[in-house]
């Protein structure tokens, strides 16, 4: 299964990055914890910060593992983060994985 995640809005101990008072994901180590959790769960893909102050990425793997990762992304996150919103799209069954590991993109 493959699933894109995007628009994960975090509030941390950073100053606002735009008028909606979204806060930068930097400083809450969200990407690092996402990479660690993905490896623990057993999914592949990537994660990155966006210029809009959100986080996006892609997760691939068995459906139960992708669903576990979606729950973590939308409800748990890094210890210093507060997740205000998590959107998922383009969920589909795939026959082959596009990635061999989970990585942080810059």
From TrEMBL:
Chain ranges of the Acylphosphatase-like domain: 5-106
Record-linked PROSITE patterns: ACYLPHOSPHATASE_2, ACYLPHOSPHATASE_3
EC number: 3.6.1.7
Matches recorded under InterPro entries: Acylphosphatase (IPR020456), Acylphosphatase-like_dom (IPR001792), Acylphosphatase-like_dom_sf (IPR036046), Acylphosphatase_CS (IPR017968)
Top enzyme category: hydrolase
GO function terms (MF aspect): acylphosphatase activity
Chemical reaction(s) catalysed: an acyl phosphate + H2O = a carboxylate + phosphate + H(+)
Active site: 31, 49
UniProt keyword Hydrolase, yes or no: yes
Keywords: Hydrolase
The family this protein is said to belong to: Belongs to the acylphosphatase family.
Protein name in UniProt: acylphosphatase
Organism of derivation: Sarcophilus harrisii
